[in-house]
Amino acid sequence: MQDKSETLQKWIAESNNVVFFGGAGVSTESGIPDFRSVDGLYNQEYDYPPETIISHTFFLNRTEEFYRFYKKKMLVLDAKPNMAHIRLAEWEKSGHVRAVITQNIDGLHQMAGSKEVLELHGSVHRNYCQKCRKFYDAEYIKAAEGIPRCSCGGIIKPDVVLYEEGLDNDIMMKSIRHIASADVLIIGGTSLVVYPAAGLIDYFRGSKLVVINRSTTSRDKNADLVIDDSIGKVFESIHID
Length: 241
What we know:
- The chain has 10 helices and 9 strands.
- The protein is an alpha/beta fold.
- The chain has 2 domains: 1-32 and 81-121 and 167-241, Rossmann fold (3-Layer(aba) Sandwich); 33-75 and 123-160, SIR2/SIRT2 'Small Domain' (2-Layer Sandwich).
- The strands form 2 sheets. A 6-stranded parallel sheet has the order 3-2-1-7-8-9, with helices on both faces.
- Helix 7 (108-112) links the parallel strand 2 (97-102) and strand 3 (117-119).
């Protein structure tokens, strides 16, 4: 792995237009569970699979049960950025990373210091009353009993993209522009099975495609560099002057 890490280090150091596209595997090292791993969100505690519970229809029809799952499994507010988040923020500050495009909703990239973060699936840190649009933070949602409600009485909804909901078009278009103009695209911590987000990779026209993931992905065969390891471990080994 050392040779591959050295190659990646060289590519990042030589570029001022690296774009990172990441998924759940970036945050599992911070203690946030994903859906599909052995240690993920599947268990016998709930009567429905996670994809059903965090769907638009379920939120509308079974709001209290939605929030029981959401507050317990998806609001991990004590999580801290790991070396993947930290390194990306450092490389952005030093002029190498142009943007971070993430499928995660935890806000850890911003906490680490990254500025150009495109959140394809929204953020747990933004919550709005469906009636008056008043803003509430994640701490308010976590502390609420039952269904979180606004001071006006309206039901508060997290600003996250639920199953059956479309992605924000402005964020999609901006992500496409970043990917299409990147010299180096690093895909990290994602199985690339969630669409339409995973389809954004098709817009890459640069010279170096990198995949860092513990398991194989559909893009491995097209990548110029594949590293089968922890993304935090890989990034920690890379030092850019």
